Amino acid sequence: MQNVAVTVHTQEQVLTGVVSLSPRKRLSDFLNSDFTKQSDSSGMFLKLTDVTIDRGDGIKGRAGTIYINKEAIQMLRTLENDAARGIGAKDGPKQRPFVHKLPVRATMYLPGYELNGYLHCTNEQEIPRLLAQELAFLPCTDTKIRSVSEDYSWDAGFVAVNRRQICSLQCV
Questions:
Q1: Which domains does the chain have, with CATH numbers?
Q2: Are 130 and 105 in contact (CB under 8 A)?
Q3: Which residues pair with 146 in a beta bridge?
Q4: Mean pLDDT computed over 105-113
Q5: Separate counts of helices (H) and strands (E) for the chain
Q6: How far apart are CA 112 and CA 148, in angstroms?
Q7: Mean pLDDT confidence for 101-106
Q8: Is the pLDDT score of 65 beyond 80?
Q9: What is the rounded CA–CA span in Å between residue 142 and residue 12?
């Protein structure tokens, strides 16, 4: 198992902890593949361990394990810049399956947040087609996130953005 340290943003809480991935599985694939399993309700939830909870009202807490409804996740960001990078980010020959993608700079607004980063599209794909896919989470890289209410910002190497939480998106 590969452990990836993440911060999960929901409307009510910011949770920091660890997600365990199968070897050679990307975080965005893990979020999207398990999310689409209608027959298995556990696919609707993200298991986060060694959790720190910030409720936004000054109350902080800790928990060993929390299960988060994926629909409630606004975005999930890795704490280490390269923790969720796929095979396309590595130099040298690419293993199969590899699909070359072009970075498209975008600004997205989610409830309470502004994100400026790169979405990744294939040569034939444009942003409307990317948004029309059945993926619940869109991978965004080299992202600057700004909290609108607190006027606080930080950088993230990888962010999985819940497509249903995007209020507006603009290509820059």
A1: 2-80+100-171 (2.30.30.100)
A2: no
A3: 114, 153
A4: 95
A5: 2, 10
A6: 5
A7: 88
A8: yes
A9: 25
